[in-house]
Specification:
Length: 393
Amino acid sequence: MHHSGRHFLQIPGPTNVPDRVLRAMAQPTIDHRSPEFAALGRTVLEGLKAVFQTAGPVVMFPASGTGAWEAALVNTLSPGDRILAFDIGEFARLWCDVARRLGLEVDVVPGDWRRGVDPASVESKLRADPQVRAVLVVHNETSTGVTSRIPEIRRAIDRAGHPALLLVDAVSSLASIDLRHDAWGIDVTLTGSQKGLMLPPGLSFNAISDKARAASRTARLPKSYWAWEPMLAANASGFFPYTPATNLLYGLREALLMLAEEGLPNVFARHQRLAEATRCAVRAWGLEIGCLCPEEHSNVLTTVMMPEGHDADAFRAVAAERLNLSLGAGLGRLKGRAFRIGHLGDFNELMLAGTLCGVEMALSLAGVPASKGGVDAAMDSLCGRPEQTARPL
Ligand SMILES: *Cc1c(COP(=O)(O)O)cnc(C)c1O
């Protein structure tokens, strides 16, 4: 069936690819050993540093975010190494699965999927175990809509006086929520192309600290495709050790330009404004936000808990079929129990208003008990007015 008008892709990644990026990619593929390519390579490798807020190197692989997980681990760790991780959501869990398959010993701190990583627990765990080689933290847990406080986690590691590396998954936060690779003392920040960077899926990234690079020289996990050193050696002249995703790099060059034109602080403020308006809408509907701590609310997506007895996937199917609106599914243990509204990437006030209008209509169409007035509450928030109280149906 043909749907007229624009599809609303409001899942928390892949995000809407802006027309500027689509047009930039619609170019002939060039020789990846040519001087013209080297100029492109150097431009994007340099431009990425600003987005990661680092002076050090950023490498990229033709892969999804999962590849960036693997690259971060195999370059820094050795078989049997102990690592500390936190069960705060589906992506944290999947990263642990990758680590276990690679032969690492993962100590997982349990969680309720409604809170982020507790810095106090990082400190006590590290004090109790001097052997831990790395701490794995998902900055923005995309399955729950919770953003962990990386600077506080860094301070907890320092208070414990522990030498463990800090590896941070920033797949859904980079270029949407502030993340400072250097200033926050992160050793590897990893991400993918399909979220805040506004590109299609297909690129993955590692920003590398001096300490992580030093660790990579003695790390013994097998690595070939993901090895940093040959990548860094080729990158020095703008090239890659194997065929790069040339057309995605055209898109990346354009996306980096767009982020620079808007300015990162403005990008972060825009995400904050749109996220706050979304939370106002959810409260006005009388529904529950997944994230329990206000200081951990995600500015890139909102997870909404379904009222008891209602299936989130049935509700999402109504939104898709009736309104051509894609909302994020509940993942893992939230399957059927929650849905997710993505509000990141190339996104603005009226796109948000359309999205929230779609959610409010779909709640009504699907017979989910919710108050009206969510869109009004969001508009008031966007216009800087105080939150209104919910009006009953
Ligand atoms: C999207 C995402 C990933 C990567 O998933 P891929 O499907 O491999 O690209 C990893 N971590 C987080 C937090 C994500 O949101």
